[in-house]
Amino acid sequence: MMVGMMLWRPAKALFAVNATFKPLEVAFYCLLRFCLDQNKGNMIVHKIIFILGNLGAIALAIYKVHTMGLLPNTPSDWLEFIPQPQRVQYSIVSNIYT
């Protein structure tokens, strides 16, 4: 549950970057109730740092899932999809002991 939320929250935040920064952009553009169009700042650096932080949180969650052994990254995890080898020799069992 915790690892799932560790993956879900940053992914959800990445899809809502503009909605997250909308109140900050309004406050940044209209600082002290004095709005000037030529004083519009650039929030792109802050958004990039926000995105990098969330990507780091997702990477940490994937690392945690890997250390728990839940990621199928070894050949033994995929044995179900490997075709069975063909028999070279057949033997017949008799009913001699019944």
Walkthrough of the structure:
- Belongs to the EMC4 family.
- The chain crosses the membrane at residues 43-63.
- It is a multi-pass membrane protein.
- It holds the Pfam family EMC4.
- This protein is mostly helical.
- The chain has one domain (2-81).
- It is 51% helix and 0% strand.
- It contains three helices and no strands.
- It has helices at 2-14, 17-29, 44-67.
- α1 (2-14) runs antiparallel to α3.
- It is rod-shaped.
- 1% of the residues are buried.
Oligomer: single chain
The general outline is: rod-shaped
Rounded radius of gyration (Å): 29 Å
Largest sheet: none
How many H/I helical runs?
3
* Mean pLDDT value: 83
Alpha-carbon distance between the two ends: 56 Å
Structural class: mainly alpha
As for the number of domains, it is: 1
Work out the strand percent.
Answer: under 5%
- Determine the fraction of residues in helical runs and give it as a percent range: 40-55%
Protein name: ER membrane protein complex subunit 4
Subcellular location: Endoplasmic reticulum membrane
Subunit structure: Component of the ER membrane protein complex (EMC).
Membrane topology: Multi-pass membrane protein
Output the keywords.
mainly alpha; rod-shaped; 0% strand; 3 helices; 98 residues
Q: Would you summarize the structure shown here?
A:
The chain is built from three helices and no strands. It has 98 residues and is mainly alpha-helical.
